[in-house]
């Protein structure tokens, strides 16, 4: 039951977004009205044939097959009945369980108590109107918005939510609705126009030409009042951009680019001054009048904002304390015995009274009961403008008429959307994504390249770090010789160089973390596939890895004096690139698992330290205990480390220990050279083998066998390192699929 309220606002004579788009379609061809030309609007397949008809400028035209004149009807009615939602609330207690030898009066642990966040909430929102949910912090405003937007699991939420009397399939709701979060989640380096254009490319169907998408964006910029800021970047703490109110309107525009039929907003005026907040709600009023159902939560609206609202729903601890029009607030509280004083903001009075009642032991229960009795008493007197004995439009008919008037459905394929019926499979009824995979990937890649181009300091700093590291290593390990000391120094260089590649890649960790919530917002309503995001993320990051690999190889390979010539150099570049590839994949995967940088960096640093420990540099493979041998093969550093060793020491003609050099790294190394020569002669006579000062004692392959680097070839190590990079990106995709579910339990 509802309180008396004024008639819904009539449609203004000014052009709405839907009408602007329709005119663009009509202007596409001079013969658009001919019988043989394609219709200038989008139709909907309803199983039974329902011919579409072009909507008039009034936005209230009759529709063939709908059932007569429906000009006075409000097609869309979002109704929710007896919504109840509870969560488990565990009792605080000791961290450790009770010991069996504790006190004899110990009782069994209590079952978790349930906390009710929504308690039998009912109401409805209609096309052309704004329904505002009000209440103090913790009253259940955001929870109710989530319940209406199907962001709570069905098994946890009790009650019903219908659109025109029919339950909505989850995929259909994502296509025809939008959800604007409380936080402004936008890319700071994109301009307002670019932000909206990318959203249009994600959400609008492929059948809509690019020129019409641009026209749609320009019309939306005008409707949002953002024309003067269209070419200004969004900005952040380090870059000056648009104002807070403009940023909020851009956030709304991103989610309404596809002209949704139902729009949910979680406190869109939070953090704004009164003027900016009024402008935001004014924009929402125009959106509602263009043919949408608008449901929003708001903390404490000003008197001017109250004049823009059509329905109010006050909550107190999950219960309804008032539901009706703003004009009925005075009579409601007068009947309750708390009349609203003249020249006082009714919503401020109501919220102050509710807060005062909540401090009492019985809470606002008296006001809740008064609302129930008031609804029953005033219910028979309520008569909406569309209550003329005619049945409301069904969901199929309403969506069909809306699309025919110019509404764009983001899940449309060639302009058609099939609304699920009782006999059709829900999963196949609606196209989940507006565009195919390759278009999504192209748009994501283009957007990421623009962001990268406008923040060159990130790549410059990374390149500088690699060059400085390479310069330091090159000057320390300058021109190593082929002596036992040179061999040891080469091992140190390889271990430090390969592990440095992985440590350098840890800067990939914050890349996804910084845009994590943007990703969650965009994928919540199927703007693009998660697989498209992973592949575009990979494509955008790969060119920089190539540059870094060549920079490090050029800086160190020739300065250190590594072997192999041109072939050895390009293999060194390849293994460094593979190390960057695997390391960035590892950091990317962790960014999909952890939630913030403070957790991610300790995990990355400690894990890479373990990889280096088990790589074979500190202890050979045949000396590692069997119970730790698995970690040796799981080490990312093992494979590039062994690959560069084999690239350096695989030549059997290259000798690293000759004659008296065999005494190096032993106590006999301090002896004078003549005495070492006499020892060689004595050993030769005893063994019957001629060992001179130039006799080769240890070749490169001999040294590889000493280091237990024999189980794989250098090419095996290269491909395994590359495979690690692919594996971590697959795991990153799985983490996104499992971790980006937006529904409450």
Outline the structure in words:
The protein is of the alpha/beta class and 745 residues long. It has 26 helices and twelve strands. The strands form three sheets. The chain has a six-stranded mixed beta sheet, with helices on both faces. Strands 2-1-4-5 form a four-stranded antiparallel beta sheet, with helices on one face. The chain has a two-stranded antiparallel sheet with strand order 11-12. Helix 16 packs antiparallel against helix 23, helix 19 packs antiparallel against helix 20 and helix 23 packs antiparallel against helix 26. The chain is elongated. The N terminus is likely disordered.
Largest beta-sheet characterization? 6 strands, mixed
Q: Taking Cα atoms only, what radius of gyration do you get, to the nearest Å?
A: 35 Å
Distance between the termini: 30 Å
State the secondary-structure class: alpha/beta
Got a strand count?
12
**Low-confidence runs of at least 5 consecutive residues:** 1-73, 95-107, 411-418, 420-429
Count, helices: 26
Helix percentage range? 40-55%
Query: Could you report the average pLDDT, rounded to the nearest whole number?
Result: 81
- Strand order within the widest sheet? 6-7-8-3-9-10
Percentage of residues in DSSP E strands: 5-15%
Shape: elongated
């Amino acid at each position: 039951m509802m309180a008396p309220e004024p008639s819904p606002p009539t449609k203004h004579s000014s052009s709405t977004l839907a009408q602007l788009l329709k005119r663009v379609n009509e202007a596409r061809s001079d013969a658009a009205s001919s019988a043989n030309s394609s219709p200038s609007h989008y139709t909907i397949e309803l199983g039974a044939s329902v011919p579409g008809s072009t909507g008039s400028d009034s936005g209230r035209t009759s529709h063939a097959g709908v059932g007569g004149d429906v000009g006075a009807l409000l097609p869309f009615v979002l109704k929710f009945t007896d919504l109840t939602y509870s969560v488990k609330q565990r009792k605080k207690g000791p961290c450790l369980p009770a010991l069996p030898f504790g006190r004899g009066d110990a009782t069994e642990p209590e079952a978790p108590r349930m906390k009710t966040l929504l308690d039998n909430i009912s109401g409805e929102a209609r096309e052309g109107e704004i329904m505002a949910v009000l209440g103090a912090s913790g009253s259940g405003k955001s929870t109710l918005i989530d319940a209406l937007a199907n962001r709570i699991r069905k098994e946890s939420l009790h009650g019903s939510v219908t659109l025109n009397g029919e339950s909505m399939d989850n995929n259909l709701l994502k296509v025809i609705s939008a959800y604007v979060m409380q936080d402004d989640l936008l890319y700071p380096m994109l301009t307002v126009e670019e932000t909206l254009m990318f959203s249009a490319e994600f959400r609008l169907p492929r059948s809509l030409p690019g020129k019409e998408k641009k026209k749609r964006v320009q019309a939306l910029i005008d409707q949002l009042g953002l024309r003067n800021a269209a070419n200004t970047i969004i900005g952040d703490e380090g870059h000056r951009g648009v104002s807070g109110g403009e940023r909020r309107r851009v956030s709304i525009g991103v989610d309404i680019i596809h002209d949704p039929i139902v729009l949910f907003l979680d406190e869109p005026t939070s953090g704004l001054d009164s003027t900016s907040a009024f402008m935001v709600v004014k924009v929402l009023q125009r959106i509602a009048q263009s043919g949408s159902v608008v449901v929003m939560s708001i903390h404490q609206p000003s008197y001017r904002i109250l004049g823009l609202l059509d329905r109010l729903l006050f909550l107190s601890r999950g219960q309804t304390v008032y539901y009706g029009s703003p004009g009925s607030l005075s009579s409601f509280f007068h009947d309750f015995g708390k009349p609203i004083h003249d020249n006082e903001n009714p919503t401020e009075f109501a919220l102050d009274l509710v807060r005062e009642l909540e401090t009492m032991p019985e809470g606002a229960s008296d006001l809740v009961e008064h609302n129930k009795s008031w609804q029953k008493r005033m219910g028979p007197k309520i008569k909406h403008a569309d209550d003329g004995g005619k049945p409301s439009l069904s969901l199929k008919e309403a969506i069909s008429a809306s699309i025919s008037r110019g509404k764009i459905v983001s899940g449309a394929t060639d302009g058609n959307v099939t609304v699920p019926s009782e006999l059709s499979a829900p999963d196949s009824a609606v196209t989940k994504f507006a565009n195919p995979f390759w278009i999504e990937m192209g748009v994501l890649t283009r957007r990421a390249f623009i962001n990268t181009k406008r923040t060159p300091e990130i790549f410059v700093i990374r390149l500088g770090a690699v060059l400085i590291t390479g310069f330091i290593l090159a000057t320390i390990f300058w021109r190593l010789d082929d002596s036992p000391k040179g061999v040891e120094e080469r091992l140190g260089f390889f271990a430090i160089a390969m592990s440095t590649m992985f440590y350098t890649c840890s800067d990939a960790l914050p890349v996804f973390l910084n845009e994590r919530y943007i990703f969650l917002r965009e994928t919540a309503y199927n703007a693009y596939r998660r697989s498209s995001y992973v592949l575009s993320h990979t494509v955008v990051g790969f060119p920089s890895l190539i540059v870094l690999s060549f920079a490090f190889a050029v800086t160190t390979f020739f300065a250190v004096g590594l072997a192999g010539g041109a072939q050895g150099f390009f293999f060194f570049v390849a293994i460094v690139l593979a190390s960057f590839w695997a390391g960035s994949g590892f950091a990317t995967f962790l960014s999909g698992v952890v939630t913030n940088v403070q957790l991610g960096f300790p995990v990355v640093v400690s894990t890479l330290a373990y990889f280096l420990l088990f790589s074979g540099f500190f202890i050979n493979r045949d000396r590692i205990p069997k119970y730790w041998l698995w970690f040796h093969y799981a080490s990312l550093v093992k494979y590039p480390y062994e690959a560069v060793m084999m690239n350096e020491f695989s030549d059997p003609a290259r000798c690293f220990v000759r004659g008296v050099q065999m005494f190096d790294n032993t106590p006999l190394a301090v002896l004078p050279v003549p005495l070492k020569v006499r020892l060689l002669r004595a050993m030769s006579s005893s063994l019957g083998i001629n060992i001179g000062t130039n006799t080769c004692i240890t070749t490169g392959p001999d040294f590889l066998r000493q280091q237990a680097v024999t189980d794989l070839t250098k090419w095996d190590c290269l491909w395994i390192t590359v495979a690690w990079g692919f594996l971590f990106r697959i795991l990153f995709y799985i983490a996104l699929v499992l971790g980006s579910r937006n529904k409450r339990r």
